[in-house]
Sequence to fold (224 residues):
Amino acid sequence: MDGNGRWATAKGWPRLVGHRKGAERVKEIVRCAPDLGIRWLTVYAFSTENWKRSTREVLGLMSLFARYIQREAEEMSREGVRMRFIGERKRLDPKLQDLMAWIEERTRNNTRLNLTVAINYGGRDEITRAIRAIARRVEAGSLPPECIDETVLTDALDTIDLPDPDLVIRTSGETRVSNFLLWQAAYSEYEFTPVLWPDFTPEVLADIVGRYGHRERRYGGVLG
Ligand code: IPE
Ligand code: MG
Fold:
């Protein structure tokens, strides 16, 4: 969800106004996703690198996350949205951690849309943490090194309950991966759009999803 800052700056507003508008867009996209055939939606809200921003912006984003959970809990329950989080949680404010655990529990039986929010998430950090956890099992003697295969690593990631993404969309004209789902996106399709996230309407998403439907995916094999 890139481009909130530029969107606000271009209008002469503080960056946080862009983030607030961005959160409104998340709501709309969550509402329309099931109608577009999307069952799994993951949004990248805060990366392990985003701590480098000003304290004001970091705190603003954190309180936006907390408010989103509190304000949207009702509607998500009503609309069958199951909310999960990926990323390293321990660095987050304990109150935010509590809210995250609370909404995950509250929405756990919902099945219409699986919404995952990546907060303090980095693909490299996630893989590093997974390897550390696997190493502990090896050290404890419960996992022989020769039994470590792709499944063992996949199951040690934050995304253990999630399917690999079919399509990764990056907004705001940047054509980088920026540490997002590095392992999981090995065979994903990518879409790069110049649209800034605060301008990312359901119509823009519908257009991208429509074009995605015409792509041919071979996963390294040949068709037919
Ligand atoms: C939102 O866009 C991404 C978040 C970290 C919340 P940016 O804040 O990166 O916006 P730009 O790139 O400065 O325009
Ligand atoms: Mg950016």
